[in-house]
Amino acid sequence: MHLQSKSSWLLALLTIVAVISVYSLMDSPKQSKEEITFREDADQKENLQNVTKEVSSPSPLFEETRLQVSNERNQLRQKLTQQITSDQYFAEEKNKASIEIDTLNKEESTETILEMQIKVLGYPDALVRIEGEEVSVTVMAKELSKYQANEIIYLVKKEYEDANVQVKFGANNY
Questions:
Q1: What number is the average pLDDT over the span 143-159?
Q2: pTM of the predicted protein model
Q3: Residue 57: helix, strand or coil by DSSP?
Q4: Strands (E), the chain
Q5: Backbone angles phi, psi at 64, to 5 degrees
Q6: CA–CA gap between residue 72 and residue 68 (Å, rounded)
Q7: Element of type H or E holding 61
Q8: pLDDT by residue (tens digit) across 18-31?
Q9: How far apart are the first and last CA of the chain?
Q10: What is the DSSP string of 87-112?
């Protein structure tokens, strides 16, 4: 039992470090670049190409939305943490709050991972929002074909199986 406790703490710590690392990469100045190597489809002769992408978001609207959602989640996280540490709540309520914090952290890291994976597909920016089983994806593009939307839906379902995915596109600042 003691070893499981250490393992779960280590996993939680590594998850937090990963989320902070991804956030700091996405929040870094525009001069920082990331090399992304991907394999093209078999139809495109399976050539390897290096693509340089800016890590920071080119869309002020997406950044504003991310900041707003982050603030709301931090407030909720703070409220739940106070509930866990308070003597006014029963153990069952504290457990529910702890599970809700874990779910919040998991959704946040999944959103960040999906946004990065969608950018690798060639979109300048993507905004992913998870609320329960509802996943809303908005990509920065002039237009979005059914094939491209299905590709994004498939990518989301690989990461979040039970999701009801809605894909939109926006040409904001594109």
A1: 92
A2: 0.63
A3: coil
A4: 33-39, 48-54, 126-131, 134-140, 164-170
A5: -65, -45
A6: 6
A7: helix 60-85
A8: 667 665 555 544 43
A9: 53
A10: TTS-HHHHHHHHHHHHHHHHHHHHHH
